[in-house]
# Entry
Amino acid sequence: MDSLLPPIVKPDKPPGKWSVNLRHPIPGVIMADILANDHLIDLARQSLSARELKLLEQVLIRSDPRPPPYGALGWHVDFAFFPRQYEAVPRQTYFHMVHCLNTVPRGGAAFMIVPGSHHRTYGASLKMDTVEELAALRGNPVEVADVDVSKGIEICPNEGDLLIFNPMTLHSASGNATDKPRYAYFASFFDVSATELSQSLNDTGYHKGFPDSMRDHLSAKYLPLLDW
# Structure
């Protein structure tokens, strides 16, 4: 991952951002190699009751050591959905699947979450009728859904653990108070029937396609994951 990201900067020389990430299109054979994981794909298919699975994105994240402040750096949701989308079969939503690439101690840039907060955000969207209201929820979920972020906790996984969480759950990155970087790999999938989701990703320009280097190194078995 370090070969694809800027060099690690010492805390006494502050960079513009203490967390650096790569999103598609990400060059390199490695992205094809880590996608071709039947166990992960089967888990994604089961969680969504999917009939035709598609890759939403892959993200590589490195959180570098930094000076204070530590703790949560910004509570948010990654997408806003109506309950009907979550309850549909196949689901018209997605789940984050976070691969923990090193053991994370307390204060070591742990992923933070407000447990159960997706019940409040979905409770708020249940009362909504328009995409404008949904956008307001996504923009300010703490206030709109009345979430108590003081209940947020650190998730301190071991190397190799897989975290799966709902994007409607309040979550945040946290500052890295240790002397070592933290690494994580995100993968997300959705069912092809989730057209409201895919249309939104295309309309906003978030989805930029997948690079030829990835397609060229995937077997025919996995190529349909990229076509949407």
Observations:
- The chain is about 25% helix and 20% strand.
- The mean pLDDT is 92.
- The first helix runs from residue 30 to 35.
- Strands lie at 19-23, 53-63, 95-100, 111-113, 153-155, 162-165, 171-172, 182-191.
